[in-house]
Amino acid sequence: MNAPATAAPITAQAFKSDYKPIWCPGCGDYSVLSSFTKAFAKLDLRPENVAVVSGIGCSSRIPAYTNCYGFHGVHGRSLAAASGLKLARPDLTVVVASGDGDGYSIGGNHFLHACRRNVDLTYVVMDNHVYGMTKGQPSPTTEPDWDSKLSPGGTGLRTFHPLVIALAAGANFVARAYSGDPNGTADIIADAIRTPGFSFVEILSPCVTFRPEQREWKRLARPAPVTTTDDAARAARRIMTDDGFNIGVLYKGGRKPYQAPIDEGKNSPSDLEAEFAI
Amino acid sequence: MAGHIEKVQASISLALTGSGGAGVMTAGNLLLEIAAKAGWYGLMVRSSGPQIRGGEAAALLRFAHAPVECLDDRFDVLVGVDWQNIHRFADEIPLDAASLMLGDPDLGEPPEVFVKRGARYAPLPFKQMAKALPGSWPNMIALGLAAGLLGLPEDVVKAVLQKSLKKGGGEKMDANLAAAEAGYAAAAKLPAVPRLARHVASGASEKSAPRANQQPAPRARGKTAPGTGPDSRWLITGNQAAGYGAVRGGVRFVAGYPITPATEVLEWLAPALLKVGGVLVQAEDELASINMIIGSSYGGVPSLTATSGPGLSLMTEALGLAVAAEVPIVVIDVMRGGPSTGIPAKSEQSDVNIALSGLHGDAPRVVVAPNSIADCVATTQWAVHLAEAMQCPAIVLSDQYFGQTRAVVDPPADIGLVSARLKAPAGAESYKRYAITASGISPMAIPGTPGTAYTADGLEHNEHGIPSSQSADHTRQLDKRARKLAQYDYGERWAEIEGEGELALVTFGSCTGATREALARAATHGIKARLVSLRLLSPSQPERLAAALEGAKRVLVVEQNHSGQLYRYLRAEYDLPGEVRSFRHPGPLPMRPDEIHRQITEWSRS
Amino acid sequence: MSTKKSAGKSGKQSTKPGMKPGMKKAKVAAPKKTTAAKRTAAKAVATALPVAKVAARAKAKTAPVARAATKAKAAPVVSASEFMAHAYAMEAEAAERYAEFADSMELHNNREVAELFRKLSRIEQRHADQILEQMGWKQSPVSSANVRWEGAEGPETADSTELHYLMQPYHALQIALHNEKRARDFFAHLAKTTENAGARKGALEMEQDEAEHVRLIEEWLKRTPVPDSNWETDQDPPVLSD
């Protein structure tokens, strides 16, 4: 895609690749892709300076559908790959894309430590309460009574609460968005990218094939009836009593992002030999 | 070509293709069920585009009157319910001038790539015919048509369809029965396709005079359950078979994580285990899965997980733990295209390396490979028995081709091998968990048993299980763990050996069927060769293989991977006689009989 | 934080497209319908999906998410030029959305609907180009990424969750009809509420234009066959690929 002339701002289209998504028609991820590109355009980023890192799953297909640098890695390890990338290349804008299976199940441990480490990343999880790509198994955010082949009658397990975990583990920006509002989601993503440190955005993105009842989310999603807080305790109380449908930036702290201490290196390798000298 | 001179073949191959919700897989599965009910053997392989819904799809079927174990080199019939993007299946549906293509003239021409092969084309307006029967679907027309072309009995078509439609609610039953009927009737007006030869007994094909164009029938083999006939046969996939084998072997705890193409093993086991008093847990990832089953097995319950290449890679550390701590577990690896994420929905035999040598340290474990869909039952059951007997991990190398192909099989006899773990009795004086014994197997105390508490450890240890860095302890334990595998008597299951001759073909897993068929073809023009299909890959069996290859001057190793993993392993572990060659190619395309047959004839001539 | 399950398992459940592999019967038992009632319901399904719920929502004016957005974001339209920039953005966004739909339908082997969406995209693009011509612009002075609407997206932009890979031309046209009506109503509302005379004039003109589009789509619909009750049947299960 050609970038417009220097005077005109970059368009969202410029961030979209020619590769057509294999997502089922009606999938919420189409809107999320749109939100990504709108957010990047809003921030006036350049595609070559943005890296989209993902794992495995339907949502993880997103890098190829953008014109940015993409990394489609293995299942559950996108945060690790993204952390490495950002630490080595702090000049890049690194956005991580995942799903509820990839991010909260196999990726759970990396999630904890990414929040704690607070590297300047934006972590977007497209949550549809199911493993889509492997044909419909429960994910950590699936309701306990959702019947499936792998868990007949439902898992019987309490769902994973990613916003609570993120806050507890030290994430500096905690938000929830809904794919049914692409512009609002774009604004939240842009805010997340702009905010230094580890920004976590959970996007409710319905799965039309395995959870068609999620069309109800249109009715259930609502703007959070509170303003963003920087008080972790207040945010914790809100998020712990949240019903999963409050949309907005729920917490924005002031933690300084982690940066690897890089000494510009006044020494040369041979300077190190001194300690070996007899 | 009017069908008066009826061509007779030992097997018939038919492909059904369509896209955008055409229901081709459903039709293919029903066709297979009809054939099974009619007393035929057959199998069905599925192939699809990358879309999750509405993508282009192909059902690849082969039928015969003896067990079918692989796809043929060509297809006799291609039925295109529509042609959108079907050209992507060109490599998987080889056609020639003798093939017949059927398509809906209202939906365009068949893809150029098929036309070029010289196949005959006959139009059939599926969509229009379905419209004329309101409530019916074009794939039912195609189903009836296919059944008619193949010569399947119409009453069986009706019976199977009725049962299936009733299950789905029964609303459109009449319309769709009529549709199948219409398709069946239409077949009579189309160019004839070859008929299936009636196969008598195994081995008969070599004695009877070969008829024109007849390929030797696939052989019936393997032990079947007593009192069997066509009515007692099974329709089963390799993944289901492996699950069933596990349960037969005594597995009662499974932890797993979904991964293509192994998820169906877990999905079959989930309700099955509940029925037999077992448990299946969906873990958060493969690391959790393997560690959970080590824990459950430590607790005394035979345990198993199923995964594919990427998952097996994650499990390697814990596999080493199971080796070191001597905890029995079974890991089914349903191999797919590699490396890394690779080609998830296609088959390949490229996890041989990691299964045989993917662990750090000197870590002996059992690696077995079923060599047919039915054999997935017995070999998985065997793996459970071996793991439990020798208190070690056992890896079962299945693959996507076995796992997701559905076949008509004779119900495999129960090999009768179940978990027989050597357990320590209560209150043994100064119990030594890792006592050095002649067999290398030491009695395992099960938690809850008084007087024999011990700590299982990945750290090297002495006979009591106390961590030790002493040279003598390390050597003793390494010897023990190696000895228990090396000295075990694996019985006759270690390989399937057939035929005789100076040329020997060595293979394993899903290449076995195609290799066997290639050998049968070679036999019809006088080439004698033997087949060694290995079921036990590790530990190696030098004496037995030497005996099996006695007198062989040429050895051809056949496998479906890029680098010749089995070939290299055999060269490393065995002294193979005479000249040894490797014939291999990676996935996604299967090994076909003719490509192996050509290798045999070329080498025999030189 | 669990989804209110009962909400999702109302009678609407039976009209939803898509397979539910592995799912047993819904825990909430649906009331038994007679065959006749089922057929009527099926007909309603055939003709109304996927827009039925959209129509219901339209009655509720703007979505709840958007209402708050309105408070935060909607700036009053102050000039004719700004007004036309909005109108342009509407048409351009609609054209882009229909083009995406066409791509998606094509990839999912629904050629008929793909072609229809491409046609709709071209039509919207023409409307957009007409505005540029009218205003003498080479490109719009306001980037579409910075335009804000009262609803979640532009009044003429189709909702991507209304797609179904097996949808029929009839459904696609219903989506188009719905969007043209929304656009018409948007301009009618704007004409009523704006204080700017130039904007009001423009809005009234646009309302007429959109009303004409509504009429055209209605005519198109009359010529389009109503889908069978089994339009969404796909006997094959979804396919895994990762």
Task: Write structural notes for this entry.
The complex is a heterotrimer of chains A (278), B (606) and C (242). Chain A is an alpha/beta fold and 278 residues long. Chain A is built from 8 helices and 8 strands, in the order H-E-E-H-E-H-H-E-H-E-H-E-H-E-H-E. Chain A has helices at residues 29-42, 78-88, 100-106, 108-117, 162-169, 182-194, 217-220, 232-240, and strands at 50-54, 69-72, 93-99, 122-127, 173-178, 199-204, 222-223, 246-252. An 8-stranded mixed β-sheet of chain A has the order 2-1-3-4-6-5-8-7, sandwiched between helices. The longest helix of chain A is centred in the N-terminal third of the chain and has 14 residues, at 29-42. Chain A is globular and about 75 Å long. Chain B folds into 3 domains: 8-196, Pyruvate-ferredoxin oxidoreductase, PFOR, domain III (Pyruvate-ferredoxin Oxidoreductase, domain 3, 3-Layer(aba) Sandwich); 234-409, Thiamin diphosphate (ThDP)-binding fold, Pyr/PP domains (Rossmann fold), CATH 3.40.50; 494-605, Rossmann fold. Chain B is globular. The relative contact order of chain B is 0.10. Chain B has 606 residues and is an alpha/beta fold. With 242 residues, chain C is an all-alpha fold. The longest helix of chain C is centred in the middle third of the chain and has 28 residues, at 80-107. Chain C starts with a helix and ends in a 20-residue tail after the last helix. The chains are: A alpha/beta (278), B alpha/beta (606), C mainly alpha (242). Chains A and C meet through helix 1, helix 6, helix 7 and strand 7 of A and helix 1, helix 4 and helix 5 of C.
